[in-house]
Design goal:
about 70% helix; transmembrane; Amino acid/polyamine transporter I; about 475 residues; globular; mainly alpha; two-stranded antiparallel sheet
C-alpha cells in the first residue's frame, strides 16, 4: 500500500474516528443521566488514562509500524492468543459501532427531512426514533462511504477534512454562544470529579467517556501508509487533545443552556435540542447537519482501520488470504473493505429488533465501552513489557512508555470490571432490553468468546506463523 498520508491526513482520520460531534450529540445526554452536572469532570477524568495509554501506542508505533497495531503488538509481546483476541474484539466492537452509527446517520437524515417539512414518503410517516426506518436509510450512506474508502486514503482523508472543518465550525459557534447565552448558573463543581454522586456513576461515566475518546488509535492502523511513522503518533495525540477541548467546551455549554433533566431526557437528540434552544430555523438545523456529517465521516473512518487490521491478520495467516487482496489500481484492501461493510450491514439489519434509536445506542455504547477498556489495557501492558528496559536507561521515556500506560491500564480495568459487576448484580433475569444488565453482559461476552474458535482454527487449522512465533521475527526494543 502506498505511503500517501501526512500529519494532518492522519489527524483527520483519527478525529473522524473519535467523531466528536456524534459523541457530543448523542453521548452527552447519556452521560448526563449518569453523572448529572459533571460532564466536564468525567471527560477530564477519562482523558488522563487514555492519554497515558496513547503514550504506549506512540512508542509501539515508532518501534514497529504495523497495520495490525494492537493485534500485532500484543501478540508478539505478550501472547498470540491475547493478540488475536485484541484484534478480534477491536474488529467486532467497530462493526457494532458501524451498525449503530448507520442508524444514527439515518436518524439525522430523517430529522433534517422533518425540518424541511417532509414528514412522510409514499404515505409512510417518517420517525427519527424508528430503528427500522433510520437503519434502512443509513445503510445507503454506509455503502457509499465504503466505496469512497476503496478509492484510496487520499480521497477519504480529503473528504474527512472538509467534513471536520464544517463540524468544528458549527460546534465552536453554537457552544461558544451557549456559554454566554445560557441562563443556567455556572459552577466550578462541574469540573470536580470528587463531587460525582457515587462510584457507580464514576464507573459508568468513565466507560461512556472512554467510548467518546475511542478511535484516536485508528491512525496507527494506517501507519504503513503514512510518510513518517512518527506522524501517526503525533496525529493520534493531536486528535485526543482536540477532542478533550471540544468535550469540555460542549459539556460546559450544554449545562449552561439546558437543565440537566432536559439534557438527559433528549438523549440521542441532545445536540439538535441544544441548537433549537439557541437559534431559530434555518440556523437551528446547522448542528443537525454537523451531526450527520460526523456520522458519515465516522462510518468511513471506521471501515478504513478495520479493513487494514484484517489485512494484517490475513498477512499473518490467522485469517484467509481474501483479506490481503489489494485493488489493482488504488492499492487498497478493497475486498476486505467491502466484506467488513457487508458484515456491518447484516448486523445493522439484526439490530432492528431493538425498537428505538435511544435503546440501540445505550446497548451498543456500554458494551463497546467495556471492550475498549479491555483492549486499551492489553495494549498498554504490551508497551510496558516491551519497553521496561527504558526504566533503567531513559527514565523520562520509561515514564511515558511504561509507567503511564500501566497506570492507565489499571484505571480502565478497575472501572470496566466494576461496571461489569454492577451489570451482573443489577438484575436476576435476562431480557432483550438496553437497561437489562444481563443483556449488556451477554453482548460483551459474545464479542469476546466468538473469537476463541476463530483463534483455535488459526492456530491448529491454518497453523499460522503468528501463533508459532515465526511472523516478522522478534520485535526490536528501541
Amino acid at each position: 500500500m502506498p505511503r500517501s498520508l501526512g500529519l494532518l491526513d492522519g489527524a483527520a482520520i483519527a478525529a473522524s474516528s473519535t467523531a466528536a460531534t456524534s459523541s457530543i450529540g448523542i453521548g452527552l445526554g447519556l452521560m448526563a443521566g449518569v453523572v448529572g452536572l459533571h460532564l466536564p469532570a468525567i471527560m477530564l477524568l477519562a482523558f488522563l488514562p487514555v492519554l497515558a495509554i496513547a503514550g504506549g501506542y506512540g512508542r509501539l508505533n515508532r518501534s514497529e509500524p504495523d497495520a495490525g497495531s494492537s493485534y500485532s503488538w500484543v501478540g508478539r509481546t505478550l501472547n498470540p492468543w491475547l493478540g488475536f483476541l485484541t484484534g478480534w474484539v477491536n474488529t467486532v466492537g467497530t462493526v457494532v459501532f458501524m451498525a449503530y452509527t448507520t442508524t444514527v446517520t439515518g436518524s439525522s437524515i430523517v430529522q433534517l427531512l422533518d425540518e424541511a417539512h417532509l414528514r412522510s414518503v409514499a404515505g409512510l410517516r417518517l420517525d427519527a426514533d424508528s430503528t427500522v426506518q433510520c437503519t434502512l436509510i443509513g445503510l445507503v450512506v454506509l455503502v457509499a462511504a465504503a466505496l469512497v474508502a476503496v478509492r484510496g486514503l487520499g480521497l477519504a482523508a480529503r473528504l474527512q477534512k472538509a467534513l471536520l472543518v464544517f463540524e468544528y465550525a458549527v460546534l465552536l459557534g453554537f457552544c461558544g454562544y451557549g456559554l454566554f447565552a445560557g441562563d443556567q448558573p455556572f459552577s466550578l463543581d462541574w469540573f470536580n470529579p470528587l463531587t460525582i454522586p457515587s462510584f457507580d456513576a464514576v464507573a459508568q461515566g468513565m466507560v461512556l467517556a472512554v467510548f467518546c475518546y475511542w478511535g484516536f488509535e485508528s491512525v496507527f492502523s494506517v501507519s504503513e501508509e503514512v510518510h513518517d511513522p512518527r506522524d501517526a503518533s503525533r496525529a493520534g495525540t493531536l486528535a485526543l487533545v482536540v477532542m478533550l477541548l471540544l468535550f469540555l467546551l460542549a459539556g460546559t455549554a450544554f449545562q449552561r443552556v439546558l437543565p440537566i433533566d432536559e439534557l438527559a431526557d433528549n438523549g440521542a437528540h441532545g445536540l439538535t435540542y441544544f441548537g433549537a434552544r439557541l437559534a431559530d430555523q434555518p440556523l437551528a438545523a446547522l448542528p443537525l447537519i454537523a451531526l450527520m456529517f460526523s456520522a458519515v465521516a465516522s462510518l468511513q473512518s471506521s471501515v478504513i482501520p478495520t479493513a487494514r487490521g484484517l489485512f494484517a491478520m490475513g498477512r499473518d495467516g490467522v485469517l484467509g488470504p481474501v483479506w490481503t487482496k489489494l485493488h489493482p489500481k488504488h492499492r487498497t484492501p478493497a475486498i476486505g473493505t467491502l466484506l467488513i461493510t457487508a458484515v456491518a450491514v447484516a448486523l445493522a439489519l439484526c439490530s432492528i429488533v431493538i425498537p428505538t434509536v435511544n435503546d440501540l445506542i445505550s446497548a451498543a455504547v456500554n458494551a463497546i465501552g467495556i471492550i475498549v477498556a479491555l483492549y486499551y489495557a492489553l495494549t498498554a501492558v504490551a508497551a510496558a513489557v516491551r519497553f521496561r528496559h527504558l526504566l533503567r536507561t531513559d527514565l523520562m521515556e520509561g515514564l511515558r512508555a511504561v509507567v503511564g500506560p500501566l497506570l492507565g491500564a489499571a484505571v480502565l480495568l478497575v472501572v470496566g470490571g466494576y461496571l461489569t459487576w454492577s451489570f451482573y448484580d443489577s438484575t436476576d433475569h435476562f431480557e432483550l432490553s438496553a437497561d437489562n444488565g444481563w443483556f449488556e453482559l451477554t453482548v460483551v461476552v459474545l464479542m469476546i468468546v466468538t473469537g476463541l474458535p476463530a483463534a483455535a482454527w488459526a492456530r491448529w487449522g491454518r497453523r499460522s506463523a503468528y501463533f508459532l512465533g515465526e511472523a516478522a521475527g522478534t520485535p526490536e526494543k528501541a
